[in-house]
Amino acid sequence: MSILSAISNKITSVPVLWRRFIITGLSALPALYILQLVIRIQTGEWDLLGPEPGKALVWLTGTWAFNFLLIALMVTPLYRLLNQRWVLVHRRMLGLWAFLYTSLHALAYATFLLQWQWADITSEIVKRPYLLLGTGAWTILLALALTSTRWAQKSLGKRWKALHKLVYFAALLASVHYLLQIRAGWFEPVLYTVLTILVLLVRNRRFEGFWKKSDKI
Amino acid sequence: KQILAASETAWGKDETLSPYSAVTQYNNFYEFGTGKTDPSRYAGDFKTDGWKVEIGGECEVKGQFTLEDILKPLDLEERIYRLRCVEAWSMVIPWIGFPLAELLKRFKPLSSAKYVEFTTIEDPEQMPGQRSVFSTIDWPYKEGLRMDEAMHPLTLMAVGLYGEILPNQNGAPLRLVVPWKYGFKSIKSIVAIRFVEEMPSTTWNDLAPQEYGFYANVNPKVDHPRWSQASERRLPNGLFSANRIPTQMFNGYASEVEGLYSGMDLRRFY
Where are the membrane-spanning stretches (chain A) (predicted)? Predict the structure, then answer.
């Protein structure tokens, strides 16, 4: 525990504003990496991501959307399990990054795979359940992003907390969205689902007894 | 890499070929991994010398044949075929091979032979996908054709592509090419051919029978349960040009093969 509190002290000695800059910079790295891929593909390196670059980018943005969703969901467990209080300040920002990458993923799908053929979009969403689930997850994150301001928090009062609990539901939708696309390689979808369930279990106060007890030994 | 002497044929002369890099670096060959680039990455050291094919079942001539035995009396020819994957992408590939019928005739199949069953090599030491604990496939990979499909002049046994010996990731040294069926029917790295009376069990049909049928004829009217088969992405495509084209019945080979299925409900026998 002393190592953890030492880490915690080291981090909290850095001003909050700096920490925000660092987290913003790190969170933007995958997006910048994806942007340079798009630029290089468009400037002649057509083969950079193989013969289906659009599909590759949809998968890449989807993976990062899920990564950030899990990172944002890890904030509270990190505080409760390891007593890292400093992380709470950054929860909103990490949640917004999760929303941003989810939006990039949806945008990549609509642009590269559907080419904005709206007739196709509606028929595809209705026909393919995994698209419906993905759209559902994105819609929830959109609502949470829109109500992430302090003003919304105040004016919604108790309802704000209830609304923002929907993030658990969004994570479950994202897991099923991924699982439904399995053909034979199930490792990654199952890994993400297991991580999602673990995070949800840790966050649920009803299960707090399990790790609070073992903590004292 | 070696150029094979092959005669040109009229097949697919008007088609635009998919680039060599797409054909050889975007593969479904789960024996080497489920990623599209896994086969080209991990098949480099795959050993094909001394390759043997076991012939058995309902035929007069049985036994083990070396690849040289198989190829000796045959003339190789180039055929440019469209390849339509069940995942809704397609390519155009210049194969080098010989009609499967030419080979099968030599084994003198009996009248009881109603189907032909093909088996891919099972060699986990060389094939990381077969070693993987995450694989849901019951190795070895198996495929099958009805006898008349196997004897059809379009059905090709390929030993090369783009003027060279078949790269390992494309199913060296011997693979099937059935251009009017989804790609998974075109089994790779064949080590056994059996003539059988009953419809053989096949890998993808075993794994998800509601998604992959035995026939697996390209059919724009019968969707995969999770995606539409009405159109396909002709590869390579660009970021802002999906190259989406309508899928043709029997992948455009309807005039040659539709007679094989007359009177069959293709919705039921997908």
Answer: 21-39, 59-82, 94-118, 130-151, 163-180, 186-203
